Amino acid sequence: MNIQWSRREFLQRASAATMAALAAGAPVSNLLTSCRGKAGADSTADTVILLWMAGGMAHTETFDPKAYTPFEKDMEGNRVLSTFKSLPTKLDGIHFSEGLQSIGQVMDKGTLIRSYVAADMGHILHSRHQYHWHTCYEPPQTVAAPHMGSWIAKELGPKNPVIPAFVDIGQRFTVGEAEELKAFHTAGFLGNEFGPFFIPDPSQGLESVRPPVGMDAKRFERRNQLYNELINNSPVGEFGSDYQRESLKRSMEQAYALLNSPESKAFDLSTEPKKSYDIYNTGRFGLGCLLARRLTEQGARFISVTTEYEPFKGWDTHENGHTRLQEMKKQIDGPVAQLIKDLDEKGLLDRTMVVLASEFSRDMMVEGRPDAKVKEQVAQPDILSDLKFYGMHRHFTDGCSMLMFGGGIKKGFVYGKTADERPCKTIENPIKIEGVHQTIYHALGIPPDTQYEIEKRPFYTTPDGKGLAVKELLI
Fold first, then answer.
1. What is the pLDDT of residues 4-39, one digit of tens each?
2. What domain count does the chain have?
3. Do you know which SUPFAM superfamilies this protein is assigned to (predicted)?
4. CA end-to-end span of the chain, whole Å?
């Protein structure tokens, strides 16, 4: 595989993969190793909430702090490992970076992973690594690889038939690498009914399940009929299989059922008690965590809440890293901790797995990993003459942090280790994306050999069906 894809090349091939998925027709159902009904005695989780730190969250500035070096004008960049002080957590001897104290106080309920290693795919693009994290497949693929949430929605089915099994909160496609991000926000060959139900702004979640203002029920019903006609005359109708067409129609029928259900009130955050609402109200991500909790109560199967990737914003700290991270921590610390507390108090955490992760980490000096450096993308001076250069700016793939809670995950556990000196790379118990995915699937009772036959070859949940759950993370 050519590992030097540009964004444009990636987009072109991703678009081609989508049409290839349609042309591939329906998966051969009798070759699917079905696991329906196994989310019971053989599973420890029913629901997954993914808290996605889009943009590259620096491990040494968050959940794996190193020696703190305060800013000095004209200091050497190589001296800096962490730009925040470290503070103790609920776990003896384990510290988090300043600004994450609330999350630190719920770590007795979950596992800290300090050894996730992102893939070496050459020139680093956020959208390509995010594609890899969410699908477990390196792009480009000849078919549209399903998102993890779509696999879960397909294999386990809905917990509540009127609540979408896969809900995506906070992701817009009007900013950043919009088309590239669309490439993995899809059910691919599994069919549209297993794709994400998008709620770009959680504060307007109720609007996602209502007809537009000024449209009465009869007019909405006529639009639904027109929608079916459009499907028949669209590229899907012309080139897609019967399976794809019917799946697209079923996705609309599911949305229509939600519109008329009492459960739609879960999307209305205005009904949340003020005391609780105020804790979560740190912005779109915080309110997304609140909506995720409410949808978990109503039976959603897989929920993704993202800080959203937009170049040079959020966790994408190519400049002003230190000051940017101060703001990012304010957005996530209270809501993430409160989500864990709420799920625990409501008796939901035991069967709900919460995963907090990012596509890769950051380092001030190394782009890629020490033994596989790649082309520099942004000028980073060796001498820091200005505060805007103080922080973790380059992309680093050899040592990343993750958090996991509930759903059979060990409590008060730390897995893996990175070096305390630069390069702060993984030195114990590396875990890669196929291990992450299969650990989640294992907890849900989805067998590792789950597959469909696509283009006359088996397509597994992880490449070649060789991914193995990391049993050390599980109770």
1. 555 555 555 555 444 444 444 455 544 444 444 444
2. 1
3. Alkaline phosphatase-like (SSF53649)
4. 39
Domain range enclosing 288: 43-450
CATH number reported for the structural domain that contains residue 85 in this entry: 3.40.720.10
Q: Is residue 385 part of a domain?
A: yes
pLDDT digit string, tens, across residues 161-212: 899 999 999 999 987 788 889 999 999 999 888 999 999 999 988 777 766 6
Q: How many residues does the chain have?
A: 475
Q: Which residue has the tokens 């091939």?
A: 13
Strand partners, 394: 363
469 assigned to some structural domain: no
Q: Is 67 left (phi over 0), alpha (psi -120 to 50) or beta?
A: beta
